[in-house]
Amino acid sequence: MAVSTSTSRPSLRLADTATDRPADLEAADTDGQDGGATAEPARAHRRRRRWWGVGAGALVTVVAAGWVVGQHVQSPSQAASNAASPSPSWITATVEHRVLAQTVISRGDVHPEVAIPIGVPTSTEGSPVVTAIGISVGAEVTEGTRVAEVSGRPVFVLQGEVPVYRPLKPLMVGTDVEQLQRALGRLGCDTSADGGVYGEATKACVARFYADAGYTPIPTSPTDEADIAAATQALIDAQTGIDSAQLTLDRAQRGPSDEEILAADTALNAAQRAYNDAVASGDVAVAQALDAVTRAQAALDELRNSPEATPADVLAAENEVAAASGALDSARRGRQSTIADAIDAITLSQSARDALDLPPDATVELVAFGQATAARDRAQTTLDTLRTATGPTVPQGEVVFSPTLPARAQRVIATLGPLDSATSDGPVAIGGSPGNELATLAAGELVVSMTLRADEVALVRVGMEVDLLDEQSNVSYTATITEIGAIARTTGDGQSAFPVTITPAEGLPDQLSGANVRVTVTAASTAGPSLVVPLAAVSSAADGSTNVSTLAPTADLDADPVIVPVEVGLSADGFVAIKSVTPGALNEGDKVVVGR
Predict the structure, then answer these.
(1) Are strands 153-159 and 399-402 parallel, antiparallel or unpaired?
(2) I want to staple 390 with a disulfide (CB 3.0 to 4.6 A). Which of 224, 328, 557, 559 is the partner?
(3) What is the pLDDT of residue 103?
(4) 325-359 burial, b if ≥16 CB within 10 A, otherwise e?
């Protein structure tokens, strides 16, 4: 302050002399005009004035030098004072009166509610070749529409919730079979007789559906016709066998006919006559042989008594006797054998005749008939099974199910030829890639998908209203959170986030499909304007109460603050809504302490 005072006085003085300078100059001019009489006093006066100017300049120089030295040269006590920390003061914030809202802001991708990729059917053999295109980008796809043809095989679209995951064949059951039957019914072919089973009615409708489109359905097996033909022939053969067994059984159960009885009687009589003939002829043969023995013995006796007989004659006679005796034995054995054979023939004939008089026994024929019947039944079952289990099928991929119809063609193969070299029209779906798809259908309304971190997803819930902003057109759309995924997934940047689906209140324009929009969710807000302070302004006491510290608007920042008990409400964006426990103790514009 001393320095400032010393410099102010010369400044004022210089200003005074400067004011006087025109008079001096005027005096000097006068002196020149008056001549020598007044010249000396005038010169003396000018010298005094010059000395005053020199003295004033020197004084200014000394004062300026003193000020510069004063800025750089300090006493020890002054240096210590300057080095000490400044006295702390309160840091305050202003109490505001406004609506406090807790918001979550993110980005979302617009896409159809359902995107249905259509690929190559499994019925295609070899490398797929696009041989026909049935739709174009933007076209409306209705039930039964043929989307494309690959290597001669069609791809149709039907309505159904269950995606295709297997080929559909006769005898199958399941929700996919049922939705196929419902679709065929909507197209005019009734399959209700099958009751949810891929049966005869369904096969007939599938065949009709393909035929109406100009195609032949794929059979369950390339050998279906040959297998059915072989099974049919086996059934015919089995039926022939059962017919023959039936005739034999019928004859056995009726008993002997008159002809059979007459034949048996005739055979028995013939056997009896053969016996009589055997006895008679045997007796004659024995008698003849006995007579021959008697004659030979008489001749031997006569030679023995004759003196003229020589030993040679006697020996010859003895041989004749021996031969005749042998013939007699042989005749006797022949008689016995022939009679025994005749007796056996009589016994067999009598037994056969007696059997004709017994009740009929068809056991053997009945067993044979049963075996023939079983063979026929097996052949019939085989044929029935083949007929039931074979027929028109729906190969996987030849029918694509869409949850809702009509759908829109979002992307379509644009050129014929090998699929790996074909080009496509239309955008690729968000998160997808062209791949070897024939087309992509968009079903349902446009929805928005986004992801939220765990701390963000904790602030939202299904049913919350959302604001969608298309920043290209600066148009906002009202929407609602309709689904929040329960399991977090890893995003492209390696973060863990939960998927969220947002459904607009009204349909979004088609041109927004594939766009990225700004999503604002108001998680919570005060019912109306309320007093708001920074979170740092609120503190808690040992008894659990909360309060803020206030300073009067005109109070020094070093003054002691006043503690005001408050109730806290919603917090958002670093602020918290409060209410003074004592009415009127806190108002908009008051200063609250947030630090020191």
Answers:
(1) parallel
(2) 224
(3) 83
(4) bebbeebeebbeebbeebeebbeebeebbeeeeee
How many CB atoms within 10 Å of residue 131?
14
Strand-strand pairing, 218-219 and 140-141? unpaired
Answer with the residue of higher pLDDT: 8 or 110: 110
Residue-level pLDDT at 62: 42
State the pTM of this model: 0.54
Determine whether 1 is exposed, middle or buried from the number of CB atoms within 10 Å of its CB (0-12, 13-18, 19+).
Answer: exposed
Nearest Cα residue to 561 out of 582, 586, 542:
586
Domain range list for the chain: 2-83, 116-222+389-425, 224-254+370-385, 258-359, 445-525, 530-595
For residue 39 the two structure tokens come to 């010249």
Pairing status of strand 530-534 against strand 96-98: antiparallel
Q: Quote the Cα angle for 21-22-23, to 5°.
A: 90
Residues 158/446, Cβ–Cβ less than 8 Å: no
**CATH code 1.10.3210.10 for 445-525:** no
Give Cα 282 distance to the centre of its chain.
Answer: 103
From the list 89, 103, 91, 90, the residue with the least C-alpha distance to 574 is 103
* 3-class secondary structure, 198: coil
DSSP assignment of 12-23, as one string?
Answer: HHHHHHHHHHHH
Q: Inform me whether the pLDDT recorded for 22 exceeds 80.
A: no
Highest-scoring range by mean pLDDT, 57-61, 175-179, 472-476, 535-539: 175-179
> Residues 279-289, buried b or exposed e (16+ Cβ, 10 A)?
eeebeebbeeb
Which of 64-73, 139-148, 244-253 has the least mean pLDDT?
64-73
Quick one: which of 164, 114, 218, 171 has its CA closest to 397?
164
* CB environment 488-522: b (16+ within 10 A), e (fewer): beeeeeeeebbbbbbbbeeebeeebbbbbbebebb
Token readout for 188 is 């005019």
How much is the average pLDDT of 332-342? 93
Mean pLDDT of 351-367: 87
Strands (E) located in 360-474: 392-393, 399-402, 407-413, 417-418, 424-425, 439-452, 465-470
User: Average pLDDT, whole number, for the chain?
Assistant: 83
Q: Which run of H or E residues covers position 71?
A: helix 39-72
Q: Which residue matches tokens 């696009």?
A: 130
530-595 folds as 2.40.420
